[in-house]
Amino acid sequence: xxxxxxxxxxxxxxxxxxxxxxxxxxxxxxxxxxxxxxxxxxxxxxxxxxxxxxxxxxxxxxxxxxxxxxxxxxxxxxxxxxxxxxxxxxxxxxxxxxxxxxxxxxxxxxxxxxxxxxxxxxxxxxxxxxxxxxxxxxxxxxxxxxxxxxxxxxxxxxxxxxxxxxxxxxxxxxxxxxxxxxxxxxxxxxxxxxxxxxxxxxxxxxxxxxxxxxxxxxxxxxxxxxxxxxxxxxxxxxxxxxxxxxxxxxxxxxxxxxxxxxxxxxxxxxxxxxxxxxxxxxxxxxxxxxxxxxxxxxxxxxxxxxxxxxxxxxxxxxxxxxxxxxxxxxxxxxxxxxxxxxxxxxxxxxxxxxxxxxxxxxxxxxxxxxxxxxxxxxxxxxxxxxxxxxxxxxxxxxxxxxxxxxxxxxxxxxxxxxxxxxxxxxxxxxxxxxxxxxxxxxxxxxxxxxxxxxxxxxxxxxxxxxxxxxxxxxxxxxxxxxxxxxxxxxxxxxxxxxxxxxxxxxxxxxxxxxxxxxxxxxxxxxxxx
Length: 529
Hints:
Blueprint: H1 7-17, E1 24-29, E2 36-43, E3 49-56, E4 62-69, E5 72-78, E6 84-87, E7 103-113, E8 120-128, E9 153-161, H2 173-182, E10 187-193, H3 202-208, E11 213-222, E12 225-230, H4 247-256, E13 260-263, E14 291-296, H5 299-319, E15 325-329, E16 347-352, H6 357-365, E17 369-372, E18 380-386, E19 393-395, E20 399-406, E21 412-417, E22 420-421, E23 426-427, E24 433-439, E25 447-457, E26 460-467, E27 470-473, H7 482-485, H8 489-498, E28 506-507
Parallel strand pairs: 9-10, 10-11, 13-14, 14-15, 19-27
Antiparallel strand pairs: 1-8, 2-7, 3-6, 3-8, 4-5, 4-7, 9-16, 11-12, 12-13, 16-17, 17-26, 18-20, 20-24, 21-22, 21-23, 21-25, 24-28, 25-26, 25-27
């Protein structure tokens, strides 16, 4: 999500503009065609620092600004109106320090919001032979941190957090880490808008906070949808439509650097209040996307408005053959301050072999995730299978699922198969409480099951904790798996009792059942994508 620039930024930027005469000035009308345009300019030899001041001529318009050097990306501040200062040893937020190569540099501009009848822009560029910014001591080439823990278990985190390197965000990494750890999280993914300027700061922040994993990422922010690049450390061109640039090419660029791609807040239809937030790039190719943010912000703050449609899109993509983990993200821009959803609301649990970027990546690819839609204190569901899963799939003639719910007394539980509730929700009366389900996988290998805890919200049962789907496939042609064929006779008899009504019937532990208004998963609404 992107927020509008605060008024304070305009006040701070104004004095600097009067201090020195610019070397280049651009005053012109915004081109009528396309969503992007470029302003190339020549940087002379001997430049140690360059300053770019930019703004639309009408304050009601929003223009996004990014910068390309001859060798590639140097920064993206979006609609932030602060001066962009780029130097050899330091740069202002959202921009990368490095050599000031003589030659053609390019300021690229996105038309985020145009409401005036005659939109225009003002840009001036100043070349300094002496730097004004002190060297950035907290920057070093990013190296993936060694595992912070080696235990195979669930790790709690937030997949969508902004630092000061997002033009519309405030907090430094230290503040983010301290707040996240205070909420009991194990990791956060730092997802700044269309920039990699925060990545070289992660090492110093990681050293200062050895009990919280800081994962590199980006919020790939376009005018037709946003997404997280989990593990991304390099800029990916977000100018979809510019010179034939496609969303497929962007997905390929994320894959080339080993990053996972997750669609963010896909149903967040807020118009100019959240520019481009709803997903309108169409349904991606199977295998190119790895997760969907089914909850953006905690349920109380925003979830009730958008969660149903986000889940509906997730289910639609799964129906089309995608295997996508469910994740959640706070979209925090203030490290817990202000009225927005704080870091940890919602919380996503990832079962991983350790606390490292690589281990979390494997957990996501295996759909080993659980989303607590409000926050860390929500009920937990641990979903196990017999026979054991291989990644996100169990292949067997018959599968027993065991869901263990902790912290859920007074809530309600159900299994969901292919988007449909298998039974009425059952009240959770013990802590922990175990629910079981025995299924015969459908032919074709497209069968899927997840678990869900619901709570009473004003007389309606609404989701509070959701697991990713487990995929079920029939046994291989040579027969059942070892675990299934080696089952003891008493266990087989017990399973036969469970299966007496139907081979696919749910048999959760006894409890009070209550009908939800959405007893079967809410029918997907038609929505332009």
